[in-house]
Design goal:
Oligomer: single chain
Largest sheet: 5 strands, mixed
Shape: globular
Strand order of the largest sheet: 1-2-7-5-6
Strand content: 25-35%
Helix content: 25-40%
Number of strands: 7
Number of domains: 1
CATH superfamily: RutC-like
CATH architecture: 2-Layer Sandwich
Low-confidence stretches: none
Distance between the termini: 23 Å
Number of helices: 3
Order of helices and strands: HEEEEHEHEE
């Protein structure tokens, strides 16, 4: 966990407290060596820090910062799911939902805010497949929500 924390600190970021689900779902589910993280929005301490619609009242850069908060919340959930041991974690897939106007078409660029953070924090183990999907509404008026899938290596690959 120290490598991830120090990499975040070098970028001027800290791992937040993992958000608690407001509705009827769990924040993550482990199945074998897979960890499925529920959708994470851009809240800190249960308060939305970014709201709005891309292409209307938010710029691409603001959307990228919102995506970055979603990624930080995801890492906070992963820390709990994996007992703080990021050394065994590899990111596999991210699906990003971006709230935008009907003609907004830069979802992938907005989602780079999260992708860049995952690679910065996890190195090569943060590279992932992904989908960027446009939508007209998200919980709490969030501009971005991401859901992710991670693999947890339970023993060295050389075994």
């Amino acid at each position: 966990m120290k490598n991830v924390i120090s990499r975040l600190a070098a970028a001027g970021l800290t791992l937040p407290k993992a958000p608690t689900p407001t509705w009827n779902f769990v924040p993550f589910r482990r199945c074998g060596n897979m960890v499925f993280i529920a959708g994470q929005t851009c809240i800190i301490d249960e308060i939305p820090v970014h709201t709005g619609t891309l292409g209307l009242d938010l710029t691409i850069e603001e959307g990228q910062r919102a995506a970055q908060v979603c990624a930080l919340n995801t890492l906070a959930q992963v820390a709990i799911a994996c007992d703080g041991d990021f050394s065994k974690v590899t990111m596999l897939k991210m699906t990003g939902l971006i709230r935008g106007t009907d003609d907004f078409a830069m979802q992938a660029k907005v989602l780079n805010g999260a992708s860049d953070l995952f690679v910065s924090a996890l190195g090569e183990r943060g590279r992932h497949a992904r989908a960027a999907i446009g939508t007209n509404s998200l919980p709490r008026h969030s501009p971005v929500e991401i859901e992710t899938i991670f693999e947890v290596v339970l023993c060295p690959k050389s075994w």
